[in-house]
Amino acid sequence: MARVAIVTGGTRGIGEAISLALDKMGYKVAANYAGNDEAARLFHERTHISTFKWDVGDYDACIEGVKQVEQDLGPVDIVVNNAGITRDGTIMKLTAEMWNEVIRINLGGCFNMSKAVFAGMRERKWGRIVNIGSINGQAGQYGQVNYAAAKSGIHGFTKALAQEGARYGITVNAIAPGYIDTDMVAAVPADVLEKIVARVPVGRLGQAEEIARGVSFLCSEDAGFVTGSTLSINGGQHMY
Ligand code: NDP
């Protein structure tokens, strides 16, 4: 029986590449998204991968969403917590709303989704949870206290949940991407981006597929002894 994988934010950007990579591995993939129906429709047309719409920041919606995926595809073995947003601004400009929204979706989404699948994985004694963090959660970033706090939280969340899953065949790992060429990075002003790329030893932005390859490994049968780890895929930027 093919394993079932949910990729949150799986219809665009890094998530799209992850959905495709897991599909190629023979997994049955459910690509979740939040509100961009047109992008989801085009993604489904291109890939024939099933799409499911819910807000990962909403606990009840995650429980219901997972139920729907299980009805359609079967018990969930793999969750990639990839959905994320930015609401950037220095603390002088950041509102409580911008803070709450980023924590609710980026960090709360990891809890909501893991909670929705963990009991089933424990029962079946197999699971893979991969959380997409960020180099900005490791190193911080000017104008991103909300995003950096949420992503840093993801790295702690990963290590704590890995300890709870270890005895049950459930691995929990994180990937910390550097700057990847997606819509999220297209929103960064060109002059800021130029300075960022100048600090990347490899000298370029990453590609979504380069993150997806790391996710594929962590979701494979072969990765059963890897848990609580953070894989940095950032062109060497973490060294600076
Ligand atoms: P994009 O903005 O290109 O895509 C985001 C995806 O997440 C979309 O599918 C979007 O759905 C979905 N999404 C957003 N909010 C929610 C929500 N509340 N519930 C469900 N789905 C949601 O992002 P990227 O591909 O660039 O980023 C993917 C992940 O990688 C994020 O966690 C990001 O923080 C992280 N990351 C990205 C880096 C980069 O350089 N791009 C660097 C480091 C980390 P919809 O289409 O409906 O809007």
TrEMBL record:
<protein>
    <submittedName>
        <fullName>Acetoacetyl-CoA reductase</fullName>
        <ecNumber>1.1.1.36</ecNumber>
    </submittedName>
</protein>
<feature type="domain" description="Ketoreductase">
    <location>
        <begin position="3"/>
        <end position="178"/>
    </location>
</feature>
<comment type="similarity">
    <text>Belongs to the short-chain dehydrogenases/reductases (SDR) family.</text>
</comment>
<dbReference type="InterPro" id="IPR020904">
    <property type="entry name" value="Sc_DH/Rdtase_CS"/>
</dbReference>
<dbReference type="GO" id="GO:0018454">
    <property type="term" value="F:acetoacetyl-CoA reductase activity"/>
</dbReference>
<dbReference type="InterPro" id="IPR057326">
    <property type="entry name" value="KR_dom"/>
</dbReference>
<keyword id="KW-0560">Oxidoreductase</keyword>
<dbReference type="Pfam" id="PF00106">
    <property type="entry name" value="adh_short"/>
</dbReference>
<dbReference type="InterPro" id="IPR002347">
    <property type="entry name" value="SDR_fam"/>
</dbReference>
<dbReference type="InterPro" id="IPR050259">
    <property type="entry name" value="SDR"/>
</dbReference>
<dbReference type="InterPro" id="IPR011283">
    <property type="entry name" value="Acetoacetyl-CoA_reductase"/>
</dbReference>
